[in-house]
């Protein structure tokens, strides 16, 4: 025994917590997940959805008011012509990043802990991108003409102006949306078949049946499915980097001090993953508690995500440092002024709040006790979400607020409708998420079964035969 | 409204019935509350459009007023615009001569302010006057410049708030009824020779009106004609009388002056000759490679003025100390005023006065001392004496007989009228123009005295405060609607010709006087023509008339020089200026709405005051030191108490203001201005007394705990160490002419563009810019630029395509002020073009950075990426698309932008296109100077020059080759087509370079 311990120490392999709790079987896993969908409606769900839906109504009101009067109902002005809308857009897109990262990159890297969280992380991605996608349209002066940004053959014989990063944005975001959607859906097909098979009511069976595309679980199906899934993962991987890089170019291409810098793409991608993981944690921790999924989303998952949060957080912190350094090192008086203005100007509280949330709070994650305490971790994740939103606001507003000509300097103050739109999209996000939780399997059933197979290498009485029996039953 | 108050709203139906029973004829009423005459309804009336009040975004109110003007049920109901005209509408059978649909015509006319004419050329599009330009041949507008008031006059013309019907006691009546009422009163007056007849007008220089008054006073020898306007020339006229013993008016020749001293004299912005003087003065300041010289200006004044901040040496001195300063100066220059000892007041550096004396003495015959209207007669007299002693008379200053038809002191005239009113001597009072109830000194209490006249009639553009106290109100025709004549600062007469038939059946003073003279059907046209026929007998009258009307000036009517001599010891007997003590109160006409007559003009309300950049409000200006002493900050509300009167005013801390003095501007706080001017600012007239119309000591200032929001278009004072305005001194320039030059274009990744045809460019001479804002208002008129209202200006959403940046350098007490007009720079490497996703802002083949409004979707990315921040966005529906009368004002050549669209300066691309088409038709190139942008045309000093930079001979190319030429934010390599000529100052070496 001593030698084994020594060996352990030599190889520096810490004892690894299991991927899922021991003692799970195929049946227990399947039951656990599909009961959320097929089981009775829970009052708490109804309450939560109702609350979120109220905010969706607020969003509808805000949009109606906006469309009726024009974008002037927000606080935007000259010089700060972009305000909350663009900050919210960047923030939501960033949140969307974690989903694809978890699904695609971690799949390719064979990080199996991802399986417990990838489904809802992907859903989160989609809903976040949906929320994000609203803003570029809402913020237009004439939103009814948004399609002029798309390259389509038209009688005017006009194309978009391809030098503009906003056009690149459209391509990047739409590509991302489509690939994420396909990836998510494809990953769900075997589970939809499971739901089809286990649903008691005919109507539900038919719906899931159509959605499952005739999945029968044959070896050929599995073979093709696995290849397609892997290929899609490979396809989605570059998008994780590309989307936010392109979004960052909206800023980096402009000559505005505080925007015009070459490290924006990696800075934004790191920030995106950072905020995305924070949002996954924000969702996973309550979800896990509400549906008693501790056996599937174990402390190991939580801690892994916390580590990811720490790593990306440190990259973000490094970027902050670089921003200050480059501001000084550039020798450019406008950059220097901007850097100082962020720290001591009108929006200094915003800057220091960002530093507190994204630099200060993140350091707590060095401690295992924090990483494994869901309450603390939830707090950290929430503050990170908040901090990243403020960071986006800071980048958008403080850079515009005081650029080159002091005579044109101004101040942006959000109006009620700015806040209403932001809260409304948060409501929309959660409303969609509630629907997802109720209507689709939030954890990948078939991948969990694989994990069961792996965590229980030689379960007594529960081996390949039981799995085969389950399949036959299905 | 609290619940308790609402409970008091009770509709008394019995009262409604009683009121209805008492009515005869057709009367419009809007609600039962109105009929009941409840206070609630009155309140409702004051809150405009209550129906929408809750509906609107709270920040939109003033904007909304404008939008809904036309739809206003109030106007429709009250004016009873009844029957349709029975005339048939037919198209032209014979097209009028020169009339090509779609091609504007220009007519020469004139417009008055304070009675004095400025010569104008008015653009007419199919019979609608849309744009006012200066008449370059007119002496008051030499070169074609104008001021903001002339530029904004078209908006007043089309103001839907103008009074639209003759009213009797507030009810709609008719012209005939008014004539009948006036006739019966006149009949009673004939016997007494008009002993009870009084006529109150503003300053009148019109030869026709003067003749009419003469005739009237002959017919009614006991009647009295009084003139009063709040910004008058009493002090200047009295000063000339004091110096010469004879009435005279100085005419300055700034173009011949090398050293100028302004004694509280804003000769660039105040006074009949301001536009001409600005041109003449600036002509002496253009330093070029070939002419490396410029004049030198000294200014002594309490509150910074346009002339003052341009000065090479400016001394902030309380207004009450300026007389002592002038006496000290006069003494040192050998002038004896007969008042004895003349010590310089405290606060005047000894070397300052000595240097000034030396400089003036060194330029005998080439110097000029100018006294401002706000200074007492003694200062004017001293200035005349100094000019005389320096041999300037006949050189830089000449004298003419007063241009006013009756140069009597207006303050005394108004006092006499009030005395007559109080004595019950006045049977009939006709107020022809002006708003004396609002503008009269508070201590005269004209409002209290006026109702003592039995018949009171008011002729005016608006149903204003005076109209409210008169039984009869007759809408006046705007000067663009009626015939008339007037004289300019040098006596030159102009015929005022109408550009459009009166929109609201307005009448003129000419017609009203003719009525008194028993010529009831005489029109203004007949009267003016008759008068000039009397002046010019002979067969060639028709030719003379046509030429005079066509040219905008009546030839050879400039007043001949008058020989005057300074009386030795002229001031003997008059009071020696007392040493000042306490807090001083100064009154000034407002830089944008003047004496209040332009209060309902949205363009002028939204034009930032040149120095404070404040819009929609006036303020009590104090110096930084005084503010610190009294612990005041900008926007704090203070109570100003003076002689038992008090007003609450917001403070504005103004660098360069004299200490222990407060300056307030007149014209605000109107109660019946119309929907635009309502609730703007505070009424400074409430503090004004007949004895001290311009300044006095003894002001008390009490700080309150309140503060208010002020809408300014520029919050920052300093350039923050950025090289935005290149400036230096003349001496440096003479040493090394290229000392302010920047290195020029840097390499770009994009291939250079080539322009085979024209390449438009602009040069702005910062040495010539006086910050008067004429370009801003001209641009607004030319390009259909909307106003947005106070709240939106506060939110940074003003729409001006060209703005005048104001920066300070140096210390707070004696700052150097810089003005910098910033239109779109039309960059070669335009950052805005790069980022527009739909290609709505593109480069054209002549180098313009053009906006395609139809293509704009409103991402506002272009504005973010514009380092000059000259792009303007329609955040809301700014443009009033409903009110019909406002549509008439718009320039048909310029797209009216809807909400959600970005807009900006395009060098008046419509004017370029028009000239290009003309040139193509005539098979030639566009000539240099053929295209004038609106800002260039309006600029009184010619600071803006536009033209083809592909043509090396063009004026703009020559200016761009000047050593002082520089590019704004050169380091960004945007390669703007608009460049600047650096600002030079010419300090006296004796005083150091500061």
Number of strands of chain B: 38
The ordered string of helix (H) and strand (E) elements of chain A is: HHHHHHHHHHHHHHHHH
Number of helices of chain B: 34
The residue-averaged pLDDT of chain B reads 86
How much of the sequence of chain B is in beta strands? 15-25%
Q: What shape does the CA trace of chain B take?
A: globular
Strand content of chain A: under 5%
**What is the alpha-carbon Rg of chain A in Å?**
24 Å
Mass-distribution shape of chain A: globular
Chain-averaged pLDDT of chain A: 86
List low-pLDDT spans of chain A. Answer: 10-15, 458-464
Low-confidence stretches of chain B: 1-11, 24-36, 47-60, 69-83
Largest interface: A-B, 50 and 55 residues
Q: Report the C-alpha radius of gyration of chain B, rounded.
A: 29 Å
For the biggest sheet of chain A, the summary is:
none
The side-by-side strand order for the widest beta sheet of chain B comes to: 5-4-16-15-14-6-7
Distance between the termini of chain A: 45 Å
> Termini separation of chain B (Å)?
59 Å
The protein's oligomeric status is heterodimer
- Please report the number of helical segments of chain A: 17
Please characterize this protein's 3D structure.
The complex is a heterodimer of chains A (474) and B (994). With 474 residues, chain A is an all-alpha fold. Chain A has helices at 2-11, 26-38, 43-69, 84-108, 118-138, 165-198, 202-211, 219-252, 264-290, 299-329, 333-344, 348-360, 368-371, 374-401, 416-439, 445-455, 464-473. In chain A, α9 runs antiparallel to α14 (374-401). Chain A is globular and about 70 Å long. Chain A starts with a helix and ends with a helix. Chain B has 994 residues and is α/β, with parallel strands linked by helices. Chain B is 28% helix and 19% strand. Chain B is built from 34 helices and 38 strands. Chain B has a 7-stranded mixed β-sheet, sandwiched between helices. A 6-stranded mixed beta barrel of chain B has the order 19-24-21-23-22-25. In chain B, strands 11-10-9-12 form a 4-stranded parallel β-sheet. In chain B, α10 runs parallel beside α21 and α11 (234-244) crosses α16. The radius of gyration of chain B is 29 Å and the shape is globular. Residues 1-11, 24-36, 47-60 and 69-83 of chain B have low confidence and may be disordered. Chains A and B meet through α6 and α11 of A and β29, α29, α30 and β33 of B.
């Amino acid at each position: 025994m001593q030698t084994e311990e020594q060996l352990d120490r030599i190889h520096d392999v810490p004892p690894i917590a299991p991927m899922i709790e021991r003692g799970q079987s195929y049946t227990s896993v399947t039951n656990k997940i599909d009961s959320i969908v097929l089981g009775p409606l829970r009052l708490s769900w109804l309450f939560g959805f109702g609350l979120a839906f109220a905010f969706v109504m607020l969003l509808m009101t805000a949009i109606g008011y906006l469309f009726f009067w024009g974008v002037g109902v927000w606080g935007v002005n000259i010089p700060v012509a972009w305000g909350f809308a663009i900050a919210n857009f960047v923030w939501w897109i960033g949140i969307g990043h974690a989903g694809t990262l978890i699904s695609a990159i971690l799949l390719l890297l064979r990080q199996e802990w991802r399986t417990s969280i990838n489904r809802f992380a992907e859903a989160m991605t989609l809903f976040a991108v949906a929320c994000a996608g609203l803003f570029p349209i809402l913020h237009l002066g004439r939103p009814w003409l948004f399609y002029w940004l798309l390259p389509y053959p038209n009688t005017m014989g006009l194309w978009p102006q391809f030098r503009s990063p906003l056009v690149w944005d459209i391509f990047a975001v739409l590509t991302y949306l489509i690939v994420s959607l396909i990836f998510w859906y494809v990953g769900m097909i075997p589970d939809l078949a499971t739901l089809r098979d286990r649903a008691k009511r005919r109507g539900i069976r038919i719906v899931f049946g159509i959605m499952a595309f005739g999945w029968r679980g044959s070896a050929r199906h599995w073979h093709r499915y696995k290849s397609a899934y892997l290929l899609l993962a490979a396809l989605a991987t570059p998008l994780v980097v590309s989307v936010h890089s392109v979004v960052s170019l909206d800023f980096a291409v402009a000559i505005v001090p505080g925007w015009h810098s070459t490290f924006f793409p990696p800075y934004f991608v790191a920030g995106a993953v950072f905020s995305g993981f924070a949002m996954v944690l924000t969702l996973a921790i309550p979800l896990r508690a509400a549906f008693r999924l501790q056996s599937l989303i174990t402390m190991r998952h939580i801690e892994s995500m916390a580590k990811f949060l720490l790593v990306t957080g440190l990259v973000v912190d490094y970027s902050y440092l670089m921003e200050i350094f480059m501001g000084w090192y550039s020798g450019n008086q406008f950059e220097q002024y901007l850097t100082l203005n962020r720290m001591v100007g009108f929006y200094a509280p915003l800057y220091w709040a960002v530093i507190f949330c994204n630099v200060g709070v993140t350091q707590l994650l060095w401690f295992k006790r924090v990483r494994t305490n869901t309450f603390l971790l939830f707090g950290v994740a929430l503050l990170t979400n908040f901090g990243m939103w403020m960071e986006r606001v800071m980048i958008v507003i403080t850079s515009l607020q005081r650029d080159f000509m002091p005579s044109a300097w101004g101040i942006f103050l959000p109006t009620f409708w700015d806040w209403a739109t932001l809260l409304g999209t948060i409501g929309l996000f959660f409303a969609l998420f509630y629907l997802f939780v109720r209507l689709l399997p939030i954890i990948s059933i078939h991948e969990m079964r694989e994990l069961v197979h792996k965590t229980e290498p030689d379960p007594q009485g529960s081996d390949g035969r039981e799995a085969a029996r389950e399949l036959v039953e299905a | 409204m609290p619940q308790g108050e609402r409970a008091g709203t009770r509709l008394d139906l019995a009262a409604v019935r009683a009121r209805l029973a008492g009515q005869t004829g057709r009367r419009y009423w809007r609600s039962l509350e109105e009929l009941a005459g409840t206070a609630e309804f009155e309140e409702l009336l004051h809150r405009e459009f209550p129906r929408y009040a809750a509906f609107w975004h709270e920040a939109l109110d003033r904007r909304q007023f404008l939008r809904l003007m036309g739809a206003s049920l109030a106007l429709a109901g009250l004016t009873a615009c009844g029957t349709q005209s029975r005339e048939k509408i037919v198209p032209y059978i014979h097209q009028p001569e020169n009339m090509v649909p779609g091609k504007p015509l220009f007519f020469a006319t004139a417009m008055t302010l304070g009675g004095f004419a400025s010569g104008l050329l008015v653009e007419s599009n199919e019979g609608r006057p849309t744009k006012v330009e200066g008449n370059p041949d007119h002496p008051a507008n030499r070169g074609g410049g104008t001021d903001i008031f002339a530029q904004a006059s078209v908006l007043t013309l089309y103001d839907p708030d103008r009074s639209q019907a003759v009213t009797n006691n507030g009810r709609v009546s008719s012209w005939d009824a008014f004539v009948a009422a006036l006739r019966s009163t006149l009949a009673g007056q004939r016997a007494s020779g008009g002993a009870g007849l009084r006529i109150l007008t503003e300053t009148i220089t019109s030869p026709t009106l003067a003749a009419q008054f003469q005739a009237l006073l002959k017919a009614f020898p006991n009647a009295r004609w009084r003139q009063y306007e709040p910004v008058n020339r009493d002090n200047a006229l009295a000063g000339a009388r004091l110096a010469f013993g004879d009435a005279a008016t100085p005419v300055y020749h700034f173009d011949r002056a090398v050293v100028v001293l302004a004694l509280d004299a804003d000769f660039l912005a105040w006074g009949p000759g301001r536009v001409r003087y600005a041109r003449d003065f600036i002509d002496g300041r253009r330093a070029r490679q070939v002419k490396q010289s410029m004049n030198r200006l000294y200014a002594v004044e309490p509150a910074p003025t346009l002339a003052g901040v341009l000065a090479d040496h400016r001394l902030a001195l309380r207004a009450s100390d300026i007389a002592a300063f002038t006496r000290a100066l006069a003494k040192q220059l050998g002038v004896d005023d007969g008042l004895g000892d003349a010590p310089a007041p405290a606060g005047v550096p000894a070397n300052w006065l000595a240097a000034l004396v030396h400089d003036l003495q060194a330029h005998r015959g080439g110097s000029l001392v100018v006294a401002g209207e706000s200074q007492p007669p003694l200062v004017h007299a001293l200035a005349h004496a100094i000019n005389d002693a320096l041999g300037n008379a006949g050189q830089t200053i000449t004298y003419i007989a007063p241009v006013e038809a009756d140069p009597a002191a207006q303050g005394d005239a108004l006092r006499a009228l009030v005395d007559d009113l109080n004595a019950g001597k006045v049977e009939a009072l006709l107020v022809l123009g002006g708003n004396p109830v609002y503008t009269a000194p508070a201590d005269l209490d004209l409002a209290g005295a006026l109702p003592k006249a039995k018949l009171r009639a008011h002729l005016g553009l608006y149903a204003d405060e005076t109209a409210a106290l008169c039984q009869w109100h007759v809408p006046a025709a705007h000067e663009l609607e009626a015939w008339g004549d007037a004289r300019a600062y040098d006596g030159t007469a102009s015929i005022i010709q109408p550009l459009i038939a009166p929109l609201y059946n307005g009448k003129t003073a000419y017609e009203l006087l003719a009525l008194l003279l028993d010529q009831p059907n005489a029109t203004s046209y007949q009267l003016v023509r008759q008068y000039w026929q009397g002046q010019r007998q002979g067969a060639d009258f028709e030719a003379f008339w046509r030429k005079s009307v066509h040219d905008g000036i009546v030839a050879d009517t400039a007043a001949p020089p008058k020989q005057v001599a300074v009386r030795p010891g002229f001031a003997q007997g008059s009071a020696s200026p007392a040493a000042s003590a306490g807090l001083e109160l100064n009154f000034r006409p407002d830089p944008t709405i003047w004496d209040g007559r332009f209060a309902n003009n949205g363009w002028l309300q939204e034009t930032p005051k040149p120095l404070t950049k404040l819009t929609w409000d006036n303020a009590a200006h104090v110096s930084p030191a005084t503010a610190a002493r009294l612990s005041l900050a900008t926007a704090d509300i203070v109570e100003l108490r003076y002689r038992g009167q008090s007003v609450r005013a917001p403070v504005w801390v103004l660098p360069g203001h004299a200490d222990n003095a407060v300056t307030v501007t007149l014209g605000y706080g109107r109660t019946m201005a119309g929907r635009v001017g309502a609730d703007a600012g505070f009424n400074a007239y409430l503090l004004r007394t007949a004895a001290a119309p311009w300044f006095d000591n003894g002001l008390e200032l009490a700080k309150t705990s309140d503060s208010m929001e002020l809408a300014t278009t520029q919050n920052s004072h300093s350039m923050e160490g950025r090289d935005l305005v290149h400036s230096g001194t003349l001496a440096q320039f003479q040493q090394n002419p290229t000392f302010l030059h920047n290195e020029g274009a840097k390499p770009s990744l994009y291939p250079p563009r080539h322009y085979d045809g024209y390449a438009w460019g602009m040069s702005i001479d910062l040495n010539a810019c006086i910050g008067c804002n004429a370009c801003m208002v001209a641009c607004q008129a030319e390009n259909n630029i909307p106003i947005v209202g106070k709240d939106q200006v506060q939110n940074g959403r003003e729409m001006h395509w060209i703005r005048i940046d104001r920066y300070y350098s140096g210390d707070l007490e004696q700052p150097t002020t810089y003005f910098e007009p910033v239109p779109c720079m039309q960059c070669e490497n335009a950052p805005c073009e790069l980022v527009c996703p739909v290609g709505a802002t593109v480069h054209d083949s002549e180098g313009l950075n053009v906006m395609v409004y139809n293509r704009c979707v409103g991402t506002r990315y272009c504005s973010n990426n514009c380092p000059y921040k000259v792009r303007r966005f329609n955040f809301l529906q700014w443009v009033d698309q409903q009110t019909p009368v406002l549509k008439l004002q718009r320039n048909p050549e310029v797209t009216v932008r809807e909400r959600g669209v970005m807009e900006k300066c395009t060098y008046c691309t419509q004017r370029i296109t028009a000239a290009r088409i003309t040139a193509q038709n005539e098979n030639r190139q566009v000539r240099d100077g053929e295209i004038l942008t609106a800002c260039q045309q309006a600029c009184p000093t010619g600071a803006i020059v536009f033209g083809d930079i592909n043509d090396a001979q063009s004026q703009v190319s020559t200016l761009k080759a000047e050593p002082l030429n520089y590019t704004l934010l050169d380091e960004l390599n945007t390669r703007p087509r608009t460049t600047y000529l650096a600002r030079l100052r010419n300090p006296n070496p004796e005083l150091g370079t500061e």
